[in-house]
Amino acid sequence: MNNPLSDSVVLITGGTGSFGLRIANALLLKGVREIRIFSRDEKKQWEMQQLFSDFTYLIGDVRDIQRLYQVMEGVDYVFHAAALKHVPVCETFPMEALKTNIMGTQNACEAARANKVKAFVALSTDKAVKPINAMGISKAMMEKIVCQQNRVAGPTIFSCVRYGNVLGSRGSVVPLFLRQIRDNHPLTVTIPEMTRFLLTLDESVDLVLYALTKAKGGEIFVRKAPACTVKHLAEVVRLKYSPLKERHPIEIIGIRAGEKIHEVLVNEYEMQRAYIDETYFTIHPEYRHIDISNVKLGDEYTSANTRLITNYEETMGILDRMGKFESFI
User: Fold this and answer.
1) Is 130 an annotated catalytic residue?
2) What is the pTM assigned to this prediction?
């Protein structure tokens, strides 16, 4: 099978995050010639360098377009993961979300185009679908910026991937539960009926690599995944990791500002221009007319209508596949 990454130069913006750490292992198996890690956090770069000493580490910020021009010289592929992604932070500082998630993405696209990068894949979130908070609004605009790039002729293929909270990633709920178990605190659940997709970091990497090879320009790719309620997840985590097992308390704290009850990954309008196979949704851009969807008008793909897991053993198996928890250190 043809491997486009063989002997290539890859740049990962925001490369010291959970995604960057996990895709690093995948890229090493693909025969990549050089992996460039671009981020503004020198401490995380130093920590990552202890694990991957052969990578090229580049300090900088996506808000600085001149720096992006420099670091993308000679780059074949860009994975754009740099973002302000924490909902409460973006709610408090919406202008900072705009500067990084929107303007930073425009900068990255311009630098990729100028350097004739072959493909540019940006990471997005369920919160960009029907956004109700500043983080989601900024990510929705990020998607528009990236997916509109291919309306102008050029050598770079731009696309996005979209997923919900990835299990075990920084800021996700399972590491929070583990810290609460370690500190002998109750597991905090917003509302029991809230549902979340169960996607591992390795599956998120598979999605990005799929987009890299399948994109024609302007698509958004979504990987199908099962889901469960947050109460079920808390119950499984305490059984698996707490010495108290089912006696470890669970505390209901109520929904937080800007938080959705269910994750929506494909809305009813996108479903009308989505190619659906066994594993992926490929959402084609509005400017490319297609007639492939046979879904009912109004159908969406959400954590409430995907396959809902209620079996403890199956959820424990998913936790086993997660590997290292990126933020439980």
Assistant:
1) no
2) 0.93
